[in-house]
Amino acid sequence: FVSRKHCRFCRLSNTSFSVFRFLTTKEKFHELLDSGVKCPNDDKASDNAVPKETTEDSLEEPQEKKFKVDPDEQERTRKRDSKRMRGQNKSRPHMKPTSYDNRRLCPSIIQERETKCVYGDKCKFIHDVAEYMALKPADVGEHCYLYDTFGKCHYGLSCRFARAHISADLKNLANEERVKAMEGRTPVRNSLDKDLQWRLRKKVVPFTASDAYMKTVSQENLALVKTIGPLTDADVIKLRQCEKKQCGNLPFRRICKRFGADITCGEMAMCTNLLQGQSSEWALLKRHESEDLFGVQVEGCFPDTMTRCAELLNNKIDVDFVDINSGCPIDLVYKKGGGCGLMTRTNKFEQIIRGMNSVLDVPLTVKIRTGVQEKANIAHKLIPEMKKWGVSMITLHGRSREQRYTKSADWDYINTCSQLASPIPLFGNGDILSYYDAMKARETEVSGIMLARGALIKPWVFTEIKERRDWDISSSERLDVLRDFTHYGLEHWGSDTQGLEKTRNFLLEWLSFMCRYIPVGLLEQVPQRINERPPYYMGRDYLESLMASQHVGDWIKISEMLLGPVPKNFNFLPKHKANAYK
């Protein structure tokens, strides 16, 4: 017996196939993936497939003796393991990409400089090319994306696709015609200049406009306001890169632009880290040439640092708008008064918005949630005030901080707030996973919609919305999307071992979202809801089943199809314990 709730995931649309055809159990699902054979549901597979015969003469080891297990002890162990596998893997160990390539070739040799290495014998890198080539992992493929795109790969001998552009005498080749065609082109902007980084670290960068604004704020307003936590913006905020939602990176945004996204925004950057010149934080501000309407998102909780950060961004990078993230629910951010904490600190919030507006030449936008507590909405009280403070646009996520991403987004409340925001545009956010969801959202008075998780699960949702249709995208097409991502990742992070493994890490993070997608052709009722989790099901081919797996070992298999085998010491711990690989 199969309940109606489960049946909705299992019937192939517009065919006479059985409802039960795609349902399976957890054991059979993983047995199929481990076997590596075609899916039984593959239309091309024979219905009368004969299992491989085994000979009677085959020698097998006898089974180990099974010991009697105490049922009570077995139940206690099961409950303990079940408890351990719930929730998130907090403070995940960060495996640096350099760990996979300890013996690296000296940059002076990679770049084929005429002068010798300035560090001489003290250099920690290898200078013997023959020794390096003996230690270097095998190449991944025959074609180098960087060489094919730009005419020259600047990673030379260290490139994991080096055979495409390395001569017999180990010299890095160049396609002069292609190199000439790429002259004067800057694919990525907003990089951190070394001189600016030095001046930020030495605190010698002038903030004339910000200092002028802070003088206009009365001493009474400058008094310290008690926050929930002891941290301030003057402290060093340590959010490791692996703990951020690292799927909104530049290569992924290029995928979204290709599918039709109109506006893109960088990942949340901490204003204090930007003011300190941290390279990892400035990397979040990079903009690709395909991003025609691009903004950066910053977080902070005090007017002086936020205003200085805005002035710095206004003078040093190329953006179309700056967004304040006052909807971040992360504890570390909230407890110091930032993120959602700003929604309850209206005095500081006003000073931040007015101060940033005074130093910016581009529009200032704000992202908020419905409130902090689940049943105590306050966005409708803030929006009329933000109109007075000079906000150019508001994005409202239809959940409170307490809800995080559980339950459904409140679009009725978003509609009410959009009416209050008029004539300022208000974009709605929450639970958009199909063009049906988008059309329903546009029935409200919002000026636009913002996608986050929906784009991570199925980035082609932008095409669906633009063309107003469902796209039953095949597994091979989805693999092509992932392949394009790896190409963009190698271009962004590098085609050497370090860049390749960094690309793999971001790919695995993305696959932890994409595995939630249910192919349209398997749905009895469309659309799929963003918080629905399907039962175990067989795809229409082996690759589709593999992409449906929520096991990190299967994600690694997909990454190996695109980026070659993982290193021997490879380590990846997924965000959720339920996906953990042992």
Automatic annotation (TrEMBL):
Residues 40-103 are annotated as: Disordered. Residues 79-95 have a biased composition (Basic residues). Keywords: Flavoprotein, FMN, Metal-binding, mRNA processing, NAD, NADP, Oxidoreductase, Repeat, tRNA processing, Zinc, Zinc-finger. Its EC number is 1.3.1.-. It holds the Pfam family zf-CCCH_DUS3L. It catalyses: 5,6-dihydrouridine(47) in tRNA + NADP(+) = uridine(47) in tRNA + NADPH + H(+); 5,6-dihydrouridine(47) in tRNA + NAD(+) = uridine(47) in tRNA + NADH + H(+); a 5,6-dihydrouridine in mRNA + NADP(+) = a uridine in mRNA + NADPH + H(+); a 5,6-dihydrouridine in mRNA + NAD(+) = a uridine in mRNA + NADH + H(+). Residues 62-78 have a biased composition (Basic and acidic residues). The keyword Zinc-finger applies. GO terms for molecular function: flavin adenine dinucleotide binding; RNA binding; tRNA-dihydrouridine47 synthase activity; zinc ion binding. Its cofactor is FMN. InterPro entries: Aldolase_TIM, DUS-like_FMN-bd, tRNA_hU_synthase_CS, Znf_CCCH. A zinc finger (C3H1-type) spans 100-130, 143-168. Coiled coil: none annotated. PROSITE patterns: UPF0034 (PS01136), ZF_C3H1 (PS50103). Residues 100-130, 143-168 form the C3H1-type domain. The keyword tRNA processing applies. GO terms for biological process: mRNA processing. It comes from the Eukaryota. Belongs to the dus family. Dus3 subfamily. Catalyzes the synthesis of dihydrouridine, a modified base, in various RNAs, such as tRNAs, mRNAs and some long non-coding RNAs (lncRNAs). Mainly modifies the uridine in position 47 (U47) in the D-loop of most cytoplasmic tRNAs. Also able to mediate the formation of dihydrouridine in some mRNAs, thereby regulating their translation. PANTHER family: TRNA-DIHYDROURIDINE(47) SYNTHASE [NAD(P)(+)]-LIKE. This is tRNA-dihydrouridine(47) synthase [NAD(P)(+)].
